[in-house]
Amino acid sequence: MEEGNKIPKSASSRLCCRCNERKPALKRPKTLEQICRKCFYEVFEEEIHQVIVGNQLFKAGERVAIGASGGKDSTVLAYVMSELNRRHNYGLDLFLLSVDEGITGYRDDSLETVKRNEVQYGLPLKIVSYKELYGWTMDEIVKVIGLKNNCTFCGVFRRQALDRGAAYLKVDKLVTGHNADDIAETVLLNILRGDVARLSRCTSITTGEDGPIPRCKPFKYTYEKEIVIYPCSYCKNLNQNHTYAYFKKLDYFSTECIYSPNAYRGFAREFIKDLERIRPRAIVDIIKSGENFRISTSTKMPEQGTCERCGYISSQKWCKACVLLEGLNRGLPKLGIGRSRGLENGNGNRKDMEQNGDVRSIESKQCGSLDF
Amino acid sequence: MACNSGNCQSNCSQNEQVAQDDSIPAPTTGSDDGANNQQQQGVCLKCKVSPPISSGGGGSGDEARFCGDCFRTNLFGKFRLAVTSHAMITPSDNVLVAFSGGVASRVALQFVHDMQQRAQRNYEASKDRSLPVFGVGVAFVDESTVCSISNDEVEEAIQEMKSTVLELAPPVKQFHVVPSVSLYSSGSSDEKDRLMKLIGAVDDVTGKDDFLMHLRMWALQKVASENGYTKLVLGLCTSKIACHVIAATVKGQGYSLSADIQYVDARWQVPIVLPLRDCTAQELNILCRIDGLKTLQLVNDHPSGINGLISSFVRLLQEENPSRESTIVRTAGKLTPFHFNRLPEINDSSVPLATLRRQKRYNLKPQESISSESFCPICNSPVINSDLPSCGSLKPFKFREFAASCCPSCQFQILPQDQSSMKEFYSLLPEGLVSRSKHKDNDNLDMLREQVQDCLLSNSDDET
């Protein structure tokens, strides 16, 4: 149900609202304005440029890696970054950084797209794979743990993979294609799950300044729908829902991860889609609320240390990736999943392996039944 | 053969009988209750005497775990803890219960009445009659002029409510019917027209819904202060608060969210208290059912627009995980409250020391000194200074000044966008709303002055 259109209709509402010359080609998802194709490109790119400049995301001479999955967000990001870098002389050295999680039928196809992007945009590409780093592909992991907590594994592993790839490339910053919808979903998810610490951090446009590599999200205020409209392509659209086939032809891969249907984020995503239909600006309103939540800075934030096993940044003795890996390697798929409750639990189960890495004998343990 | 033990190995008929009984499955009431039922065999978990509310299968977890009495005691216990730990109701108070006829406000009324009755009995039993009994009134906001409800329906509902309130005596409670038009000062002949035009000027479906809600609150405040009430009790429960958390987030009101969801909200002239904050709608529903508390539903419970979307979203989440509402409220509870989210310390000698001590303990420590908050004249939410225009930029026109002082959310979804409509909207507003926005600044100044009083050398305000 659409609410009253807030844009006052001018007498000659048949022209683009920005240039007043050309016929409008679409209604902008963000503002519902009628706009022509050329103006849409300009306004889309200009808004991102303003976000970059206004938030001082980059300094001249920096080496910047673009997290590239081959999907629409990172493809458009790569294109827009290289375009703005050239047009406004940011003076950045851009690279493409891709992660191969080892998901057949999904990641192997999208990586082909990234390899094409490397050629199309002239940006050097580095691919890091889970198999190389951890000895496991996501396919293998899902075979062991099933479809319930697989996103946790993938997310944790990917974060470290990106950091390691960034270190290899010796870059100063990492940019990711997280868009306004993603961030709004994350705000809602953190409210639903009671994670106040994350709630206070998730709306920052730059994160990890005190970690191995700072990351920023130039698409923080960019709507997912607009990112989709921007680069529509003719070819290779397996799940394409949109029909703006006559716009910029950017090559990208569009399918959902085959393991994602059960993700809890799906709830938030559906809700936001419905919300956008009623009031498009609600997406940025959620982000604004997230920025303005009164969260005490004395809220207990985790202390930063390093992982004893691999040296990566960690607030516990072992980083999450090492904990999960240990679980996988020892056939304990639930290790590291769920909240830590200490060593004993009420049902009198035998002691779980401690998080500090003390290796106990595991002959007596049952696979999959140990919850922290 | 005499067998009196289940361990008997012989194939006697007694054994077979026992075996048969054991094979009858215990009533299944929920997957997580299956195990408990096997052990409890149909007794309340708490008193272990009476059967649970729903022993025949079906019903929620609580109904299968507790008997009616224990459930009621438990729920009333939550209410009483909220009231006593935040000193919501003291003997010298005159409490107004906002009553919509719905489940939550019915339970709120019932519990407040139970508490009052108890106090009355204690008063009569005590020798020195030192502790007076707090007064209770009930108010119903009649929105028939602005909603599409027939006059007959409303009349019938009002009669029912009157009889409910009459039954809840002694002690006697006054019942106020507050028509929406009462917001306008009496004597204006065209108040109904003005109100209709005012509501009609709001385009946005969600905005209209919210605007009606704000007007409802102002009407309650008006009747409360005009009749000498010192506290306003709302039946806001966990479920409604969870919806409000999401709604505030979605409407860009993240800053003011923590003000709305605390036990106490003293930014209003008559402070608002939420004694049912820790009770879920499901629990309240169960209580109404087992105690036969009559409820009625006048206002449409399925609002359209964003509010409707949010209530179905929260319902969906709740089905997926029954503790989701509580988690949402708990998360929001970790946000920093405002200085007005605590009651001013009582200096009344008639208040027992225990209450004073408890209030001191639970009163939230002010994290920062009292900041001079600006409040939106429509929804009364604190506005961040950065959202307000600098002074002096809009002076000439009162309606522009008014619009600029509203919070961004009200500006978008309630106020008309073009100048002339805005001007008309401003002229249709009840006088109370307009003049209030000026008074609030003075209140803040007074509060600040109180804080620094001991450092001031001169009493005059025009110091250079």
Automatic annotation (TrEMBL), chain A:
Any one Gene Ontology cellular component term annotated for this protein: mitochondrion
Pathway(s) this gene product operates in, as recorded in its UniProt entry: tRNA modification; 5-methoxycarbonylmethyl-2-thiouridine-tRNA biosynthesis
Protein name (Swiss-Prot/TrEMBL): Cytoplasmic tRNA 2-thiolation protein 1
Domain (tRNA(Ile)-lysidine/2-thiocytidine synthase N-terminal): residue spans on this chain: 64-227
Keyword line: ATP-binding, Cytoplasm, Nucleotide-binding, RNA-binding, Transferase, tRNA processing, tRNA-binding
Family in the record: Belongs to the TtcA family. CTU1/NCS6/ATPBD3 subfamily.
Gene name, Swiss-Prot/TrEMBL: NCS6
Xref: Pfam families: ATP_bind_3, zn-ribbon_14
Domain spans labelled Cytoplasmic tRNA 2-thiolation protein 1 C-terminal: 305-335
EC number(s) from the headed UniProt entry: 2.7.7.-
TrEMBL record, chain B:
Keyword Repeat: no
GO process terms (BP): protein urmylation; tRNA wobble position uridine thiolation
GO cellular component, one term: cytosol
Alphabetized Gene3D superfamilies for the sequence: HUPs
Subcellular location: Cytoplasm
Keywords: Cytoplasm, tRNA processing
Main location class: cytoplasm
Gene Ontology molecular function, alphabetical: nucleotidyltransferase activity; sulfurtransferase activity; tRNA binding
Pathway where it operates: tRNA modification; 5-methoxycarbonylmethyl-2-thiouridine-tRNA biosynthesis
InterPro entries in the cross-refs: CTU2 (IPR019407), Rossmann-like_a/b/a_fold (IPR014729)
Described function: Plays a central role in 2-thiolation of mcm(5)S(2)U at tRNA wobble positions of tRNA(Lys), tRNA(Glu) and tRNA(Gln). May act by forming a heterodimer with NCS6/CTU1 that ligates sulfur from thiocarboxylated URM1 onto the uridine of tRNAs at wobble position.
Family per record: Belongs to the CTU2/NCS2 family.
Protein name per Swiss-Prot or TrEMBL: Cytoplasmic tRNA 2-thiolation protein 2
